[in-house]
UniProtKB/TrEMBL annotation:
<feature type="region of interest" description="Disordered">
    <location>
        <begin position="23"/>
        <end position="42"/>
    </location>
</feature>
<dbReference type="Pfam" id="PF01797">
    <property type="entry name" value="Y1_Tnp"/>
</dbReference>
<dbReference type="GO" id="GO:0003677">
    <property type="term" value="F:DNA binding"/>
</dbReference>
<dbReference type="InterPro" id="IPR036515">
    <property type="entry name" value="Transposase_17_sf"/>
</dbReference>
<feature type="compositionally biased region" description="Basic and acidic residues">
    <location>
        <begin position="29"/>
        <end position="42"/>
    </location>
</feature>
<dbReference type="InterPro" id="IPR002686">
    <property type="entry name" value="Transposase_17"/>
</dbReference>
<protein>
    <submittedName>
        <fullName>Transposase IS200 like protein</fullName>
    </submittedName>
</protein>
<feature type="domain" description="Transposase IS200-like">
    <location>
        <begin position="63"/>
        <end position="115"/>
    </location>
</feature>
<dbReference type="GO" id="GO:0006313">
    <property type="term" value="P:DNA transposition"/>
</dbReference>
<dbReference type="GO" id="GO:0004803">
    <property type="term" value="F:transposase activity"/>
</dbReference>
């Protein structure tokens, strides 16, 4: 049995005999999160599309210094053996990446390496 709320069909868990959680479990989402994020399917070798987005209030990523930092970070990640960033597109407040990885764990570690190696905080002080 399904109810409709704001144009979406909502399946009631009680119909299937599961307990209905009173609060949402998992990490809190920020107020500016505009997209519902689900879990990524288990990856077993292949290509993934990854988006990295900035919070509001930062300079554009398309400026000369920011582009240099991004290119350097991507080059460092590609020297490792976990992931390979095949293509990327830089927008003013986010970056789209096409990434090859053997599995979800490698993808996660590679993207964590990219995020920590960006160095944009040092650039923006």
């Amino acid at each position: 049995m399904a109810k409709t709320r704001m144009g979406r069909a909502v399946v009631l868990q009680a119909v299937f005999g599961f307990a209905v959680p009173k609060t949402r479990r998992g990490p809190k989402r920020s107020k500016d999160s505009r997209v519902a994020h689900g879990s990524r399917e288990e990856m077993k070798g292949g290509v993934a599309h990854v988006t990295i987005k900035l919070k509001r209030g930062f300079r554009s990523l398309r400026k000369k210094e920011e582009m240099a930092v991004l290119r350097g970070a991507i080059a460092r990640v590609n020297q490792g053996e976990l992931v390979r960033i095949v293509e990327f597109s830089v927008m003013s407040n986010h970056v789209h990446l096409i990434v090859e990885a053997e599995n979800s764990g490698d993808l996660s570690k590679g993207m964590a390496s990219l995020n920590t190696g960006l160095g944009l905080n040092r650039l923006w002080d």
